[in-house]
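Protein modeling request. Please complete all fields; requests missing the sequence field cannot be processed.
Requester role: graduate student
Desired output: 3D structure, token encoding
Chains: 1
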Amino acid sequence: MKLVFAIVQDEDAHKLVDKLMKDDFGVTKLASTGGFLRAGNTTLIIGTENERVDEAIDIIGEVAKTRTQVATAPPPTTWGQGVYMPYPIEVEVGGATIFVVDVEKFEKV
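Delivered output (109 residues):
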């Protein structure tokens, strides 16, 4: 048995959970925050048999697509003299970060 951790952007989470559940994957959804934009993420925990790991990863890849978004550059970490003027930058968002780990023991009580 494997445990798949998938960190996805909030806007992809609902559709991804629906698709995984429709394909008979058990999913636990956790709210998380992080990344360059400090935007909301969702961490999904998916328990599955070894043979279905690639299927789960394929579904995640189908739903959690990368896309471009315009954001304001974060302020510098050190303050110098002068005025800081934020400027828009184009960043890639979305996609997924996936970790797969072995499960030594599983019980449902």
